[in-house]
Amino acid sequence: MAKTALVTGILGQDGPYLAKLLLEKGYKVYGLIRRYSNISFDNLDYLGITKKINFVEGDMTDESSLLHLVKRTMPDEIYNLAAQSFVGASWAQAKLTTEINALGVLYMLNAIKLFSPTTKFYQASTSEMFGTSHENGSQDENTIFHPRSPYGISKVYAYWMTVNFRESYDIFTCNGILFNHESPIRGMQFVTRKITDGVAKIKMGLMDKLSLGNLDAKRDWGFAGDYVEAMYLMLQNEKPDDYVIGTGENHSVREFVKLAFKHAGINDWEKHVVVDVRFNRPAEVPNLKARPNKAQKQLGWKAKTSFDDLVKMMVEADLKRYSVKSV
Ligand code: GDD
C-alpha cells in the first residue's frame, strides 16, 4: 500500500517542493489548508502538482481541527512546514506568530500521541534559533540558541517540544534546522525574491530603484528543492534525530544584490539600490553559516546547488515571468 504523508504549509515554498518529491516516491499526499478568503495555488501550479494533492482543511491554531485530521488520516509521516515564517513581521504580530509556530506544534504532537503514535513527525526548525550565537562564525547542532525575534523564540519552543515528545513518549520526531533556502517560488517579502523580482522589473523598465535594509547581513543560502530531500531522509533514517541543513558557505545581502544584477546584464547596480532603514529589524541576526557535517555523515545529504546557480535560477525565472507578461 502507498505510504501517506500530511504536509502542512502546502501552499508555501517548501510544501510544493516536498510534495513533488513525495509524489515521485509514490506517496499519497494530504495537504493542510486553512480557510482563506483568497486562496492561491500558484506555487503548486508552478510545479504542476495541484491536482495530485488531497487537500484537507484545518488550522494550526485550532487544536480540535488537528485532532480530527490526524485521527481520520493517520498518516505514516507528517511534515510540519506551516508557519508565520516572515521574521520581519514577527515583532508586530508576536502573539499570532507564537500561536501558529509554537502552540500549533504542541497541538499537532498531541494529536499524534493520542491518535497515531507511530506517525513520524518532521518539524521545520530554523537557523534563526541561533541568532547571534556561533563558534568561529558558524553553527551546528551543538551551538546554543540565542534567538533575536519573536519568530526565533517561537521556533525554539517548537524545537524543544519536538525533542520532548521523542524523549517522553518515544514518538519518532525530527528537527531539521534549516538555514535560508530559496527558489523561484520564494515569497516576495523575503530578501532574495525581493531582489530578483526587483532586478527583473528594472531590466524590463518597470521600476528604477530597489529599496532594501541591511546589506551587510550574511546568510547561508541554498536551494529549497535540495533541502526538502533532507527532510525526507530524516524520516527514513533508523533513528530520529536533529540536523543542521545548509551549504556551509555564506554571503552578504550586498553580494546577492550584485550577482543578481550581473545575471540580468546590469553592471551599475549601485545606481538602482537605495538603503531604507524602514527595512531594518529591531534586532538583527548578522551572520549565519551552517556546519552541516552531521547531515552529510548520517543522512548522506549535501546541498547540490551553488550560490551562483541559485541566484541565476531566480533571476531567470523572474525575467521570464515579466517577459511573458509583457508579450
Ligand atoms: N526581508 C527583507 N527585506 N530582508 C532584508 C531587506 C529587505 O528589504 N534588506 C535587508 N534584509 C536582510 C534582513 O535584515 C536579514 O538579515 C536578511 O536580509 C534575510 O532576510 P529574509 O530574507 O527576510 O530572511 P530571514 O533570514 O530573516 O529568515 C528566513 O530564513 C530563516 C532561516 O534562517 C525565513 O525563511 C525564515 O522563515 C527562516 O526560518
Give the key terms.
7-stranded parallel sheet; 327 residues; UDP-galactose 4-epimerase, domain 1; Rossmann fold; binds guanosine-5'-diphosphate-alpha-D-mannose; two-stranded parallel ribbon; alpha/beta
N-to-C series of helices and strands: EHEHEHEHEHEEHEEEHEEHEHH
Total DSSP E strands = 13
Helical stretch tally: 10
Secondary-structure-derived class: alpha/beta
What does this structure look like?
This protein is an alpha/beta fold and 327 residues long. It folds into 2 domains: 4-181 and 221-245, Rossmann fold; 187-219 and 250-287 and 307-326, UDP-galactose 4-epimerase, domain 1, CATH 3.90.25. The chain contains 10 helices and 13 strands. It has helices at residues 14-24, 42-46, 63-73, 94-115, 150-169, 191-203, 224-236, 253-263, 293-299, 307-326, and strands spanning 4-8, 28-33, 54-57, 77-80, 120-126, 173-178, 181-182, 210-212, 218-219, 222-223, 242-245, 251-252, 273-275. The strands form 4 sheets. The chain has a 7-stranded parallel beta sheet, sandwiched between helices. A two-stranded parallel ribbon has the order 7-10. It has a two-stranded parallel ribbon with strand order 8-13. α5 links the parallel β5 and β6. The mean pLDDT is 97. It binds guanosine-5'-diphosphate-alpha-D-mannose. Guanosine-5'-diphosphate-alpha-D-mannose (GDD) binds at residues 85, 87-88, 126-128, 179-180, 189-192, 194, 212-214, 217, 219, 253, 279, 281, 284-285, 288.
